[in-house]
Specification:
296 residues; mainly alpha; 13 helices
């Protein structure tokens, strides 16, 4: 298979009617490593909205059970990608996502913002660090895929195009990014988790490298000391160099899904999608009225 054969395949597909299949090809064949890194950074962005970061700190899911919450988030989202919205696994994953969210008082605007991060952050990451830039077909397909997910989660006023997702994200961050002590605890716990995947002596280097990939608004929101310009330049050049190296390698012949990532540590003996996720903590923000139709 030629290096750009799958891109040629994607360009022959309908980016709206076949959006989820295009997104599956992009995420599981073309950019599995990049999508994982980008969605990790998308998580950091959501913490910087105080209402979101504070709630995550109150539930303690991302401070006391960080690995499990990381695993469950990745596995539930990717079950939809791997199996499709209308498959048994995909419908079960969406039911679990909805059941978790409906137990807490989460605003529609916050839910919509989180959805925007799944569309915008990966596109920006891949265009900056991937072995090639995303094609317009892939950009459109990503927006359609996550618009469908948002609708099935009952989120109102979901953007229709990538440009609308991007404008929504940028405006929401400008209006809402800010300091919260609980959100900082969640961010620190996530940094510690990422460092734990590698030998302990590398932890300081890995923390510094992750911070070097965060932008200024995010660093200010968490009150992190910005990495020096040399550190930032070296880290970003190293990630770009990886992309250039991947471009020289043969294309992936088999799909790679989130369940195969070495970072997924919590289910060594396997799992059932219906058992993934969390259950609301009694006394932490009561359940709001349903904002719209959900998959039940």
């Amino acid at each position: 298979m030629k290096r750009y054969a799958r891109l040629e395949q994607i360009r022959r597909m309908d980016p709206r009617a076949e959006a989820s299949e295009i997104y599956r090809l992009t995420s599981a064949h073309e950019f599995p490593w990049d999508l994982t890194r980008a969605l990790e950074l998308a998580l950091f962005r959501t913490y910087a909205v105080p209402g979101i970061g504070r709630l995550l700190a109150e539930t303690a899911e991302l401070t006391d059970r960080t690995q499990k919450r990381y695993d469950d988030t990745a596995l539930l989202l990717d079950a939809v990608v791997e199996h499709g919205f209308d498959s048994g696994e995909g419908r079960t994953a969406i039911r679990r996502i909805n059941a978790m969210h409906r137990g807490y008082d989460i605003s529609n605007a916050d839910m919509r913002y989180v959805l925007c991060t799944f569309v915008v952050v990966p596109r920006r990451w891949i265009d900056a660090y991937g072995w090639r830039r995303l094609s317009q077909h892939e950009v459109v397909a990503s927006a359609v895929h996550y618009r469908t997910l948002g609708q099935r989660m009952g989120i109102e006023d979901v953007p229709e195009t990538y440009e609308e997702f991007e404008a929504c994200l940028d405006a929401y961050e400008e209006a809402h990014f800010g300091w919260d002590a609980g959100a900082r605890r969640v961010s620190d716990a996530t940094l510690d988790l990422m460092a734990s995947w590698y030998p302990r002596p590398l932890a300081p280097l890995l923390r510094a490298s992750t911070l070097a990939l965060l932008d200024e608004p995010l660093l200010r929101a968490f009150r992190y000391e910005p990495p020096g310009p040399v550190t930032r330049a070296l880290v970003r050049r190293a990630v770009r160099a990886r992309g250039r190296l991947v471009r020289l390698l043969p294309p992936r012949r088999t799909p790679h899904h989130a369940r195969q990532n070495r970072e997924i540590k919590g289910y060594p003996n396997g799992y059932h999608v219906a058992d993934l996720g969390t259950w609301p903590v009694p006394g932490v923000r009561g359940c709001p009225a349903s904002p719209g139709p959900r998959v039940d």
